[in-house]
Amino acid sequence: MSDSRPMAARETAYLGSQAQDYDARRFARPQGRVIGEMEAGQLMAVLNRLDAGSSVLEVGVGTGRFVALALAQGHACSGIDASPDMLEQTRAKLANEGSLRLECAEAAVLPFEDNRFDCVYSIRVMNQTESADYALRAVREMYRVVRPGGWLLVEFVNSRRLTAPGNHRRNVRLSHDQVEAALAGARLACRSGCFLFGMTAFNRCPAVLLAALSRLDRAFSRAFPRLCARGYVAVRKPQDSAA
Questions:
Q1: Alpha carbon 77 to chain centroid, angstroms
Q2: Tell me: the pLDDT tens digits for 210-243?
Q3: Distance from C-alpha of 141 to C-alpha of 231, rounded to nearest angstrom
Q4: Which one of 7, 42, 96, 189 is most buried, counting C-beta atoms within 10 A?
Q5: What is the 3 state secondary structure string of 59-126?
Q6: Who's near 136: CB < 8 A, 6+ residues apart?
Q7: pTM to 2 decimals?
Q8: Rg of the chain over all Cα atoms, to the nearest angstrom
Q9: Pairwise CA distance, residues 81 & 74, whole Å
């Protein structure tokens, strides 16, 4: 059977063993778990503002690590991912955890009507897209499906991050300014960051020192969000917005 997904999605999605091993490779060690907890904290800052039973969409749901947090709060959740294999991981993990609808789709062409969700978010996705232009199209598409008064949280690899010598890993990078410009008309709620010292510092940190590194990184990230390895922009759609 031919793959009908757009070329961009086919080239950037995690498939096969990449999907099966995704969690084990990244979050089995204490270092990965601390990274995951710091990312989850950024999402919880938005989820905790929602009314009970809100409609929530995760764009790039992956293996369901983050949507599980929304399900635990009793929200009606949807998730899209360009990888059917990642969606299978989520189905297996969260089959009995609450109201969850999953679809195979790409971030820049969401299969939902305008003003559909109370909250839309994306974490660890924009840097995996084919280009900055595509990523910003996806940001605008996510905003389209947020209802007036609803929330959007976008995470990205920060183009203004502090970079260690020799760190030239290729991925799509954005800035807070670029994301905010793509969301012109939205009400900025929070501009934040994580991993001022980089995820590599956490992955190489001895387990006994992780708590101290986490506290230090959180403090510096609050002071210098525009320099962090990962940036976050949270906005609300105005109540009088038509789209």
A1: 15
A2: 999 999 999 999 999 999 999 999 999 999 876 5
A3: 19
A4: 42
A5: ECCCCCCCHHHHHHCCCEEEEEECCHHHHHHHHHHHCCCCCEEEEECCCCCCCCCCCCEEEEEECCCH
A6: 174, 178, 179, 182
A7: 0.91
A8: 17
A9: 22
